[in-house]
Design brief:
Radius of gyration: 24 Å
Oligomer: single chain
Number of strands: 4
Low-confidence stretches: 1-6, 253-265
Order of helices and strands: HHHHHEHEEHEH
Strand content: 5-15%
Helix content: 55-70%
Amino acid sequence: MSVTFTPRRSDRTLLWAGGVLGFALGGFFDGILLHQILQWHHFLSLVPGDRFRDLRMQVLGDGLFHVAVYLFTLLGLTLLWRGRAGFTATDSDQPLLASALLGFSVWQFTDGIIFHWLVGLHRIRVDVPNPLTYDIGWLVLVGLPPLFMAWRLRGSSGTGPGGVRRARNVAIALAILTIGAGPFANLPPRGDMTRVAVFPAGTGAARSFAAVGAVAGRVIWVDWSGDLVAFEASPETRSIDLYGLGAILVGNSAFGAGCVSASPT
């Protein structure tokens, strides 16, 4: 006969402790592996400005990030101490482990959705043509497995349908947030001056080049027809002026950046 883990106040505090500690461990895992060992990015890698190109500033940003993670760790340890009475409950270990795994997974999605896509401080790997591939791969390989294990543990630990339902709701919320924030992942980094201009069919390279030059832009790629142009804008460039010169669409575009990375100028 299985024994049901019935949450009391101390038990709920213990579960929160596991979640917060798992969240903090996710941050440490990210910082140690990606910032220091693999060196795929720093916390402030994509923040524009010469000041942030200095390696000392990047290392300082990583250090402040770890300070914030330490504060989460202290919060988790405090909750763990306050909920220590929950350890006397039968089968309290599996719910605690499930909460920690859930917190670890929530960090991966929080980092990806907020810091990578919405705010744009960095990506999983910043020195590659298609950083979105690494972002999605990281969530699949590192974010989803602990979420799945937390779900299974909550179902097998006797927490009842309420605990499983909460884990399911977290998974659904993360899925919705990921899908909703997905378009932001395709925006170019802040400070990126790449623009894409589309001209009517038959415009040709000569006239599209002249239009881009008229707004102080520098062409860096053009398609075979000459009607689709990627260019580097200058501080004087006003994209709106290109409409007066015949363009039918002007804007920042990850599609354009992909063309530039995949095609010769």
